[in-house]
């Protein structure tokens, strides 16, 4: 009888331990709300992002720009133009394309141990969709006027929203711009759109006190840009020179018209 009681006690103890284990397991294992299959566009994006971050050594440089002159130019152009309104994105696309003309090594890709520099400057615009991200392309952006860039951007974004983009609309970009400024993001470091060598991130416009050349404090609209590059193709000095040139164009924007 004593042995029976001991066995019963052992069984109860084991049961108690198992119950405690289950309780602990439930505590540390989060309850699942929903399981979403990775498929379609989202799966393609995931694969491309993984390939980019796995194969390309990324590094990012940041610069802050006073856009007071750029704002004045935008306002002036939008009073004069009868077509699509010029946006900051249009101005940045044009300025970036001109900067890529100056520093064509950024308009490139690495393939089979060779850096291939493209003659055409085709700027991709990272665009959010309901089920993922897509990059419609403004071809030969350096050769287009601001009005032409605006027309093409509006058309591409509208058709992206309606899921009416063709394969040709999202193929052939040589450099990409991504803008999260409208979501009040100050700056960020994006993943390069594989197989390109660089991507430009655009942050929010914020008013900040700035000390001018005469030592006076003024409040100016400022914007941060981030340049993420493939370190196999480019070094920090070249990236810095590109950003300096881009900043000069955006702060003295008469070259854009």
From TrEMBL:
Gene Ontology cellular-component annotations: cytoplasm
Matching InterPro entries: 2-oxoacid_DH_actylTfrase, 2-oxoacid_DH_E2_comp, CAT-like_dom_sf
TM region(s), chain numbering: none
2-oxoacid dehydrogenase acyltransferase catalytic domain span: 34-256
Keyword tags: Acyltransferase, Lipoyl, Transferase
Example GO molecular function: lipoic acid binding
Cofactor(s) the protein requires to work: (R)-lipoate
PANTHER family xrefs: DIHYDROLIPOAMIDE ACETYLTRANSFERASE COMPONENT OF PYRUVATE DEHYDROGENASE COMPLEX, LIPOAMIDE ACYLTRANSFERASE COMPONENT OF BRANCHED-CHAIN ALPHA-KETO ACID DEHYDROGENASE COMPLEX, MITOCHONDRIAL
Family: Belongs to the 2-oxoacid dehydrogenase family.
Full protein name: 2-oxoacid dehydrogenase acyltransferase catalytic domain-containing protein
């Amino acid at each position: 009888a004593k042995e029976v009681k001991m066995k019963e006690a052992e069984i109860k103890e084991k049961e108690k331990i198992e119950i405690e284990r289950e309780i602990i397991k439930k505590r540390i294992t989060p309850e699942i709300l929903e399981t979403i299959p990775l498929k379609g566009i989202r799966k393609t994006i995931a694969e491309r992002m993984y390939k980019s971050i796995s194969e390309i050594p990324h590094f990012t440089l940041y610069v802050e720009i006073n856009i007071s002159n750029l704002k004045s130019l935008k306002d002036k152009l939008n009073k004069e133009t009868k077509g699509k309104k010029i946006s900051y994105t249009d101005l940045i696309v044009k300025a970036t394309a001109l900067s890529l003309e100056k520093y064509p090594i950024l308009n490139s890709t690495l393939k089979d141990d060779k850096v291939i520099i493209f003659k055409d400057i085709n700027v991709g615009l990272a665009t959010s969709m309901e089920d993922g991200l897509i990059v419609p392309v403004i071809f030969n952006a350096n050769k287009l006027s601001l009005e032409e860039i605006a027309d093409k951007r509006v058309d591409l974004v509208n058709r992206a929203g309606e899921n009416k983009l063709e394969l040709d609309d999202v193929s052939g970009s040589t450099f990409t711009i991504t803008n999260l400024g409208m979501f009040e993001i100050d700056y960020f470091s994006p993943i390069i759109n594989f197989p390109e060598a660089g991507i430009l991130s655009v942050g929010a416009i914020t008013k900040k006190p700035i000390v001018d050349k005469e030592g006076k404090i003024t409040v100016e609209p400022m914007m941060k840009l981030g340049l993420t590059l493939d370190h196999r193709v480019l070094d920090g000095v070249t990236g810095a020179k590109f950003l300096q040139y881009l900043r000069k164009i955006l702060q003295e924007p008469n070259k854009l018209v």
